[in-house]
Fold this protein.
Amino acid sequence: MKPSQLPSPFTFSQSSLQDYNDCPRRFQLRYIDHLAWPAVETEPTQEYEKHQQEGSLFHRMVQQNIIGLPAERLSSLAQSERLRRWWDAYQQHAPALIGYTLYPEYTLSAPLGEHRLVAKYDLIAIKPGEKAIIYDWKTYRKRPRDEYLATRWQTRLYSALLGKAGSHLNDGKPIISERTEMTYWFSNFPNHPAKFAYSKSKSEKDWGVIEKIVNEISSAGEFPMSEDEHPCRFCAYRSYCDRGAKAGEWDDFDGEIDAEESFEIDFEQIGEIAF
């Protein structure tokens, strides 16, 4: 197999699509060449890693609370000032979802040609026949602009895939795009969530773009570097492209780079649509 050839079948996620959008070369190095020992993303490394670890623990605490563990029992897990602040903010601003069926840490998948799309949701809240809300908890240090979030692959893929593969969560009935909403809740900015309403036209457009970019990646012979070098400061693969050996400074880190997704999935156990 040529180094630049996409393996088939390939599982596309919001992270892999975003990587390709930001820099095709990063997509190649990460998902096709599987290069090991990438560089650190920010300096100082310990602070960055601590933030990532606390973010993962916060997500787990929220998930455990949603499935029934009392908040006061979970509070003992918050051993740092930052995590305690996030947890307090969540308890004060947790969404009111009376009448909704909740699916925390839920994965949906759908085939797309010879490949597959997959998304792992922090929370899907369904009021059968009425409304579907996607929640995503963010521990960003800075609050991203809504305009920025609207263009991210997570916003587009999560909403589109729920409509395609989530009917079994809605009593077997199609999830109507106009009754779908995605909410980003920020632990550092609990009073300023970002909410995105969906629509049939957006769904059709997003799905068309997904099909287009998957076909483009599948047939690509080359994966060029991004012309914009600004994100390279926080790219783990920058040294392979001769775009700097030193990581960007943590104080300059905008907090809008998600950790790479890792899917260990039993596809027999997750929601899927065949089409």
Notes: The longest helix spans residues 45-66. Residues 56 and 139 are 9 Å apart (CA to CA).
